[in-house]
Amino acid sequence: MVHAVGGLVYMDGANMNAVMGIVRPGDCGADMMHYNPHKTFSGPHGGGGPGAGPVAVKKHLADFLPIPVIVETAPGQYTLDENRPLSIGRVRSFYGNIGVLLRAYAYIRSQGPEGLRRVSERAVLNANYLLARVRSFLPVPYGSRCMHEFVASAMKIRASRNISAMDIAKRLLDYGFHAPTVYFPLVLREALMIEPTETETKATLDEFADTLKAILEEPPELVHEAPHTTPISRPDEVLAARSPILKWTPPGENAAF
Q1: Which DSSP string do the residues of 24-70 spell out, in sequence order?
Q2: What is the pTM of this model?
Q3: Among candidates 128, 134, 102, which has minimal Cα distance to 198?
Q4: Segment 121-153, tens digit of pLDDT
Q5: How many Å apart are CA 174 and CA 224, to the nearest integer?
Q6: Closest by Cα among 142, 114, 115, 112 to 128
Q7: Per residue in 221-248, pLDDT tens?
Q8: CA angle 141, 142, 144 (to 5 degrees)
């Protein structure tokens, strides 16, 4: 319908680990999309680490891609093509985080087509298994099935025991778990967006679910002060966002936090 009135379709490819090897985005009618290889192809996601977002387009948009464009001049020989009159020009982040891209490339080559399909199947299976475990003690408002992630809400536990989504995330750190995304999506209050990967074992998923349930039963005062095992417990997050310190200084010389 969009194409019929002269429009273009952009597809969000941030979460290809739910459909790769199963669905081809081009067949869905998308003209353009970005990938998140730091999520889909084994790179860490979150924690302030580097990401990458290569953009793919169909042939009718290729002339508009940023320059330079890598072209093959002979078998095994490549050059940078700057002669693209319709190009949008250079973009600052053209080269991206090459370490993330190399890791993704190695992961793709090691898995192969059949392996990548299994990655999607297992990511979806793990997420649905964990959803089934979690929904018995935390509300999951958007149904009993999901793709590679699901969103639970701590709204009821906050109302009854004054334990927030942020409190839960901070306390999970004490148990050795990387906390899930909290307060996103914004349409759900006290959101916990839980996204197990394809590599997690059933034992790890069970341990996570059991730990999550245990946290909800702990004394609120203990949870409010978490994490107890990290060098910094709860920094001033507003100050950290507005005045980030992006280089290391010896202890004692930086009093901001």
Answers
A1: -GGGGT-SEEEE-HHHHTS---STT------EEE-GGGGGGSPSPEE
A2: 0.83
A3: 128
A4: 999 999 999 999 999 999 999 989 999 999 999
A5: 12
A6: 142
A7: 999 999 999 998 888 889 988 998 888 8
A8: 100
